[in-house]
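Example 3.2
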Amino acid sequence: MVAQSLESMIIINPKLRGGRPIIAGTGVTVRTIVGHYKLGLSPEEIADDMGLSLAGVYAALAYYHLNVAQIEVDIAQNAETAVRRDLS
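Structure, written as tokens:
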């Protein structure tokens, strides 16, 4: 069994999800994980509900806590875009 590093679990690729950080191999953004977590879901519930590894969910939450400002800006921009879309 090959050990994984935290750095390999979250990737940023400009060609995937607009360059937002995602859980490697899934396409699920850190922003999505944080949103579910802020709604009160536990990491275990998020992993089960989304078909993700628990390690991937914790990696996303660790990335968030290391980059709070960056992810909060992304969350705010996404909310603003959703409001504009709803008003159109």
